[in-house]
Specification:
195 residues, alpha/beta, Rossmann fold, seven-stranded mixed β-sheet, transferase, Formyl_transf_N_sf, GART_AS, EC 2.1.2.2, Formyl_transf_N
Length: 195
Protein backbone atom coordinates (compact mmCIF):
# COMPACT_ATOMS: atom_id res chain seq x y z
CA UNK A 1 0.00 0.00 0.00
CA UNK A 2 1.42 3.38 -1.02
CA UNK A 3 2.14 5.98 1.65
CA UNK A 4 0.09 9.16 1.42
CA UNK A 5 1.57 12.67 1.06
CA UNK A 6 -0.24 16.00 1.43
CA UNK A 7 1.57 19.13 0.22
CA UNK A 8 0.94 22.71 1.38
CA UNK A 9 2.20 25.46 -0.95
CA UNK A 10 1.57 29.19 -1.38
CA UNK A 11 3.03 30.06 -4.76
CA UNK A 12 3.85 28.85 -8.21
CA UNK A 13 4.31 25.25 -7.10
CA UNK A 14 7.34 24.08 -9.07
CA UNK A 15 8.55 22.02 -6.10
CA UNK A 16 5.07 20.57 -5.68
CA UNK A 17 4.93 19.63 -9.36
CA UNK A 18 8.35 18.02 -9.10
CA UNK A 19 7.32 15.96 -6.04
CA UNK A 20 4.04 14.84 -7.66
CA UNK A 21 5.87 13.74 -10.82
CA UNK A 22 8.56 11.93 -8.83
CA UNK A 23 6.02 9.90 -6.87
CA UNK A 24 3.93 9.13 -9.96
CA UNK A 25 6.93 6.96 -10.92
CA UNK A 26 7.31 5.48 -7.43
CA UNK A 27 5.91 2.47 -5.64
CA UNK A 28 6.60 4.06 -2.24
CA UNK A 29 4.08 6.89 -2.03
CA UNK A 30 1.73 9.25 -3.83
CA UNK A 31 0.65 12.85 -3.42
CA UNK A 32 -3.06 12.60 -2.56
CA UNK A 33 -3.83 16.27 -1.93
CA UNK A 34 -2.35 19.73 -2.50
CA UNK A 35 -3.56 22.62 -0.33
CA UNK A 36 -2.87 26.32 -0.77
CA UNK A 37 -3.83 29.50 1.03
CA UNK A 38 -4.06 31.50 -2.22
CA UNK A 39 -7.07 31.23 -4.52
CA UNK A 40 -5.02 32.18 -7.60
CA UNK A 41 -1.84 30.24 -6.78
CA UNK A 42 -0.34 28.58 -9.85
CA UNK A 43 0.19 25.43 -7.78
CA UNK A 44 -3.56 24.67 -8.15
CA UNK A 45 -3.23 24.45 -11.96
CA UNK A 46 -0.01 22.46 -11.76
CA UNK A 47 -1.52 19.88 -9.41
CA UNK A 48 -4.76 19.54 -11.37
CA UNK A 49 -2.84 19.12 -14.64
CA UNK A 50 -1.17 16.10 -12.99
CA UNK A 51 -4.55 14.66 -11.84
CA UNK A 52 -3.88 15.51 -8.20
CA UNK A 53 -6.67 16.90 -6.03
CA UNK A 54 -5.94 20.54 -5.14
CA UNK A 55 -7.93 22.94 -2.94
CA UNK A 56 -7.48 26.42 -1.53
CA UNK A 57 -8.45 27.70 1.90
CA UNK A 58 -8.50 30.97 3.82
CA UNK A 59 -6.25 31.76 6.76
CA UNK A 60 -9.30 31.44 9.05
CA UNK A 61 -10.01 27.96 7.66
CA UNK A 62 -6.42 26.92 8.34
CA UNK A 63 -6.86 27.64 12.02
CA UNK A 64 -10.43 26.34 12.27
CA UNK A 65 -10.99 22.80 13.52
CA UNK A 66 -13.65 22.18 10.87
CA UNK A 67 -11.91 22.91 7.61
CA UNK A 68 -8.24 22.16 6.92
CA UNK A 69 -7.88 19.81 9.89
CA UNK A 70 -10.97 17.93 8.72
CA UNK A 71 -9.56 17.65 5.18
CA UNK A 72 -6.29 16.30 6.59
CA UNK A 73 -8.01 13.73 8.77
CA UNK A 74 -9.95 12.53 5.71
CA UNK A 75 -6.77 12.36 3.60
CA UNK A 76 -4.89 10.37 6.31
CA UNK A 77 -1.42 11.52 5.27
CA UNK A 78 1.69 9.62 6.31
CA UNK A 79 3.60 12.85 5.71
CA UNK A 80 2.66 16.52 5.30
CA UNK A 81 5.16 18.53 3.25
CA UNK A 82 5.39 22.33 3.33
CA UNK A 83 6.88 23.38 -0.02
CA UNK A 84 6.96 27.16 -0.17
CA UNK A 85 4.11 27.53 2.31
CA UNK A 86 4.26 30.98 3.88
CA UNK A 87 1.84 30.87 6.81
CA UNK A 88 2.82 29.73 10.28
CA UNK A 89 1.62 26.16 10.61
CA UNK A 90 -1.08 25.69 13.29
CA UNK A 91 -0.23 23.86 16.49
CA UNK A 92 -3.63 22.13 16.32
CA UNK A 93 -2.51 20.30 13.15
CA UNK A 94 0.99 19.60 14.51
CA UNK A 95 -0.61 17.95 17.56
CA UNK A 96 -2.82 15.72 15.38
CA UNK A 97 0.12 14.72 13.14
CA UNK A 98 3.14 14.56 15.46
CA UNK A 99 6.50 14.12 13.65
CA UNK A 100 4.68 14.02 10.31
CA UNK A 101 5.14 17.60 9.08
CA UNK A 102 8.30 18.65 7.24
CA UNK A 103 9.37 21.88 5.53
CA UNK A 104 11.97 22.82 2.95
CA UNK A 105 13.82 26.10 3.57
CA UNK A 106 16.00 27.82 0.92
CA UNK A 107 19.03 28.41 3.18
CA UNK A 108 21.29 26.60 5.62
CA UNK A 109 19.39 26.92 8.88
CA UNK A 110 19.79 28.27 11.50
CA UNK A 111 21.07 31.05 9.22
CA UNK A 112 18.42 33.07 7.36
CA UNK A 113 15.39 31.52 9.00
CA UNK A 114 12.41 32.94 10.86
CA UNK A 115 9.41 35.09 10.08
CA UNK A 116 9.64 36.92 6.77
CA UNK A 117 12.61 34.87 5.57
CA UNK A 118 11.38 33.15 2.43
CA UNK A 119 12.21 33.07 -1.27
CA UNK A 120 13.82 36.23 -2.63
CA UNK A 121 14.24 37.72 0.87
CA UNK A 122 16.52 34.83 1.85
CA UNK A 123 18.61 34.99 -1.33
CA UNK A 124 19.01 38.77 -1.06
CA UNK A 125 20.20 38.43 2.57
CA UNK A 126 22.69 35.74 1.53
CA UNK A 127 24.13 37.99 -1.23
CA UNK A 128 24.12 41.11 1.00
CA UNK A 129 26.20 39.21 3.57
CA UNK A 130 28.70 37.96 0.96
CA UNK A 131 28.17 34.32 1.95
CA UNK A 132 30.56 31.83 0.35
CA UNK A 133 27.86 29.16 0.35
CA UNK A 134 24.17 28.61 0.80
CA UNK A 135 21.88 25.64 0.31
CA UNK A 136 18.70 23.97 1.46
CA UNK A 137 17.46 22.63 4.76
CA UNK A 138 14.70 20.06 5.14
CA UNK A 139 13.43 19.96 8.71
CA UNK A 140 10.56 18.86 10.90
CA UNK A 141 8.05 21.61 11.66
CA UNK A 142 7.38 22.71 15.21
CA UNK A 143 5.48 25.68 16.64
CA UNK A 144 8.30 28.14 15.79
CA UNK A 145 9.35 29.29 12.31
CA UNK A 146 12.25 27.21 10.95
CA UNK A 147 13.32 25.79 14.33
CA UNK A 148 12.31 22.11 14.06
CA UNK A 149 14.86 19.30 14.02
CA UNK A 150 16.99 19.28 10.86
CA UNK A 151 16.63 16.20 8.67
CA UNK A 152 18.93 17.10 5.78
CA UNK A 153 21.08 19.93 4.45
CA UNK A 154 22.85 20.33 1.11
CA UNK A 155 25.31 23.14 0.35
CA UNK A 156 26.19 24.95 -2.84
CA UNK A 157 29.19 27.26 -3.32
CA UNK A 158 28.66 30.89 -4.24
CA UNK A 159 30.98 33.32 -5.98
CA UNK A 160 31.44 37.07 -5.59
CA UNK A 161 29.32 37.92 -8.68
CA UNK A 162 26.11 36.27 -7.43
CA UNK A 163 22.78 38.09 -7.50
CA UNK A 164 19.64 37.00 -5.63
CA UNK A 165 18.32 35.47 -8.86
CA UNK A 166 21.49 33.43 -9.57
CA UNK A 167 21.44 32.21 -5.97
CA UNK A 168 17.75 31.30 -6.39
CA UNK A 169 18.58 29.18 -9.46
CA UNK A 170 21.28 27.26 -7.59
CA UNK A 171 19.00 26.69 -4.60
CA UNK A 172 16.06 25.62 -6.78
CA UNK A 173 18.14 22.98 -8.50
CA UNK A 174 19.06 21.55 -5.07
CA UNK A 175 15.39 21.61 -4.04
CA UNK A 176 14.30 19.76 -7.20
CA UNK A 177 17.00 17.15 -6.80
CA UNK A 178 16.70 16.48 -3.07
CA UNK A 179 13.18 17.18 -1.80
CA UNK A 180 11.51 14.12 -3.38
CA UNK A 181 14.40 11.82 -2.36
CA UNK A 182 14.33 13.01 1.26
CA UNK A 183 10.54 12.69 1.44
CA UNK A 184 10.94 9.10 0.25
CA UNK A 185 13.65 8.36 2.83
CA UNK A 186 11.56 9.87 5.67
CA UNK A 187 8.59 7.72 4.60
CA UNK A 188 10.78 4.61 4.44
CA UNK A 189 12.14 5.41 7.89
CA UNK A 190 15.73 5.40 6.61
CA UNK A 191 16.37 8.89 7.99
CA UNK A 192 16.05 9.02 11.73
CA UNK A 193 16.29 12.44 13.31
CA UNK A 194 15.83 12.84 17.02
CA UNK A 195 13.05 15.35 17.61
Amino acid sequence: MKKRIVIFASGSGTNTQNVIQYFQQSKTAEVVLVLTNKKDAKVLERAKSLNTKALWFTKEQLFSENTVLKLLKAAQPDLIVLAGFLLKFPESILKQFPDKVINIHPALLPKYGGKGMYGHHVHKAVVDNNEAETGITIHFVNEKYDEGAIIFQKKVALNTTETPSTVAKKVHSLEYEWLPKIIEKVLEGTIITKL
